[in-house]
Specification:
about 270 residues; alpha+beta; Bactericidal permeability-increasing protein, domain 1; two-stranded parallel sheet; binds 2-acetamido-2-deoxy-beta-D-glucopyranose; Haemolymph_juvenile_hormone-bd; Haemolymph juvenile hormone binding
């Protein structure tokens, strides 16, 4: 029982850190991009236009997002967005200090594969309440990095320097946003003011190589525990991970949509 608890907390650190890393690429927060890139004036090939009066507006907007993802993943120069497949993150420090488990250290040289295969499951646009919801499905997320962690699991010292791998399967996210429509360089654009993210996943695998100073038996034990308890661990962390995911999603969405006037994709007539 106690040992199980320890493992879960340990996994907590790993999982939430994995997610925090994604956030690190988009660390500067702002609502509307204050850069010098003017809003688009002509609809590009990757932008599917919808009309507000369309009785199937939600499906139309779903297609707009669906069509955009592959381009967003590669980066769209004309609206100034950077590629996010794979995501490279230099370093993520972590300090998890209180109680029976302490861990400090960092993951470095992170490479995240998978987000470019995102599918838009549904969207729901409510222009009266200024609400926008979208469901996203990511079939696989793979993270490779170096890790350097030091701490204690109860009486067990945990020291590890090596390679870390995470593999997440069938990640479904449910995103709820509050939106508004400010002017950016004299064009009306859509911006998310707040975002809430819930998610599910079908499976997760974690591997920390060279744990416990290369002690293969202890290392294997911890990794096995992590994997056996993966879904419970994630369940425990949903709220925290969701907060971190929302930061990433909001940034990506606002970076893109603050350069795309609504007249090109959410038309009055
Ligand atoms: C995207 O999906 C395709 C087809 O399933 C797969 O071959 C490819 O590896 C995936 N790409 C990433 C980055 O996961
Ligand atoms: C901004 O848009 C308004 C109305 O569309 C127009 O009258 C005005 O000239 C524009 N201002 C600039 C600086 O482009
Ligand atoms: C992941 O989703 C696909 C498509 O819905 C499904 O065929 C597959 O069985 C799922 N995998 C797991 C591990 O749930
Ligand atoms: C990420 O999650 C951690 C742990 O819950 C939280 O303290 C932090 O505020 C979150 N970061 C963001 C940007 O939401």
């Amino acid at each position: 029982m106690l040992f199980g608890t320890v493992i879960i907390v340990c996994a907590t650190v790993i999982v939430s850190n994995c997610i925090v890393t994604i956030e690190a690429t988009n660390s500067h927060q702002r609502s509307v991009q204050q850069d010098q890139i003017p809003p688009l004036q002509i609809a590009p090939v990757w932008l599917n236009a919808c009309k507000k009066k369309d009785p199937n507006l939600d499906e139309c907007i779903r297609m707009t997002f669906q069509n955009m993802f592959p381009y967003l993943a590669k980066g769209i120069a004309e609206i100034g967005t950077s590629p996010f497949e794979p995501m490279h993150i230099d370093r993520v420090a972590l300090t998890k200090g209180q109680g029976a488990v302490t861990l400090s250290g960092a993951f470095t040289n992170l490479i995240v594969h998978g987000p470019s295969n995102t599918t838009a499951l549904y969207t729901k646009m409510d222009l009266k309440k200024n609400r926008f919801d979208i469901g996203l499905f990511i079939p696989t997320i793979k993270v490779e990095s170096k890790y350097d962690l030091k701490g204690n699991l109860l009486l067990l010292p945990l020291v590890g320097v090596g390679d870390a791998k995470l593999y997440l399967k069938n990640v479904t996210t449910y995103v709820q946003t509050k939106i508004y429509f400010p002017k950016y360089m004299n064009e009306t654009v859509m911006v998310a003011s707040s975002m809430k993210v819930d998610f599910n996943l079908a499976a997760m695998r974690v591997n920390l190589d060279n744990l416990f100073n290369g002690n293969k038996v202890l290392g294997r034990t911890v990794n096995q525990f992590l994997n056996q308890n993966a879904l419970e661990v994630v369940d425990d962390l949903k709220e925290n991970i969701g907060e971190n995911l929302s930061t990433i999603f909001k940034q990506i969405m606002n970076d893109a949509f603050s350069h795309i006037p609504t007249k090109l994709w959410l038309q009055d007539d």
